[in-house]
Design goal:
Blueprint: H1 4-25, E1 34-36, E2 40-42, H2 44-60, E3 65-68, E4 82-90, H3 92-97, E5 103-110, E6 113-121, E7 126-131, E8 136-140, E9 143-147, E10 160-163, H4 169-178, E11 183-186, H5 190-196, E12 202-205, E13 209-210, H6 211-223, E14 227-230, E15 244-245, E16 249-252
Parallel strand pairs: 3-4, 10-11, 10-12
Antiparallel strand pairs: 1-2, 4-5, 5-6, 6-7, 7-8, 8-9, 12-16, 13-15, 14-16
Helix pairs in contact: 1-2, 5-6
């Protein structure tokens, strides 16, 4: 499957959206924070990013459907083999905290599988991307390099990443059971990127997420050599009627590092 054009347009859209996000990030009074679904924050940056990405994707790929966190869901997408899955600003809470740990996520699913992923980190300018069968890459400034997972399988040396905004009892129990001391908390899909480039080996997520939180990350980590599965060891699929990833998931650099509670 040749997804070069889809990848290039998605990279361009993510970068343009990232620039719009940074304009608002650097002017705190422009954030315009509101809340949806009770306690989920929404900012002017979410809206600006969404407008850029969805506008570009609709223009370039009118035959594809789009599922975005910040768009009204058109379930006619369920009849389309191709669906872009977009999180215009992943890590809105981190954006509001101004800690830099937020991303722009754009994925393409084909017949419910994530076959392309782009993750842009506006604060650092890092651009992670992958397409099925072509490996995972990191563009950082003027350099581009292929990224691969760590080869570590020594339980005492494993490095964990975990959510900074969504702690849970199961994660605490896992850390205690295996006596892990080398772990770091961070926001957004950055956690998957850290595993993909070999700077950590394990990311377990017990709490529910949404399709747009994981679609881009899944393609990138898998193309970097990682294992990505739902907590019940079944594959994650996309462009579903229910967008909630209710089973949780895990990302590990090697199946030998699968942990059990």
């Amino acid at each position: 499957m040749d997804l070069q054009r889809e990848l290039e347009i998605s990279k361009k859209a993510a970068i343009e959206a990232g620039l719009a996000i940074m304009d608002i990030y650097n002017n705190a009074e422009d954030m315009q924070i509101t809340y949806k679904d009770g306690d989920m924050p929404l900012t002017a940056a979410d809206k600006a990013s969404n407008k850029i990405i969805v506008g570009m994707l609709k223009k370039e790929f009118p035959e594809y459907s789009i599922l975005s966190e910040e768009e009204k869901d058109d379930q006619s997408r369920l009849d389309n083999d191709y669906c872009f899955v977009v999180d215009p600003l992943d890590g809105t809470k981190e954006f509001i905290k101004r800690n830099g740990q937020f991303t722009v996520n754009i994925a393409l699913s084909y017949k419910h599988k994530s076959v392309m992923g782009v993750i842009y980190v506006p604060v650092t300018g890092e651009l992670y991307y992958a397409s099925e069968g072509n490996g995972a890459f990191l563009e950082d400034g003027s350099s581009t390099r292929q990224i691969k997972v760590s080869g570590c399988t020594d339980i005492k040396s494993l490095r964990l990443v975990m959510s900074s905004s969504h702690g849970c009892e199961q994660m605490d129990k896992l850390i205690e059971k295996y006596n892990f001391t080398n772990f770091v908390k961070m926001g957004s899909s950055l956690k998957g990127c850290v595993v993909a480039k070999g700077d950590a080996e394990i990311y377990y997520r017990f709490n529910p997420t949404m399709e747009w939180d994981t679609a881009a990350m899944q393609c990138i980590v898998e193309e970097a050599g990682a294992v990505f599965m739902q907590m019940d060891d079944t594959p994650m699929v996309y462009n579903r009627e229910d967008n909630r990833n209710s089973k949780g998931f895990y990302i590990i650099n090697n199946i030998a590092n699968k942990l059990e509670l």
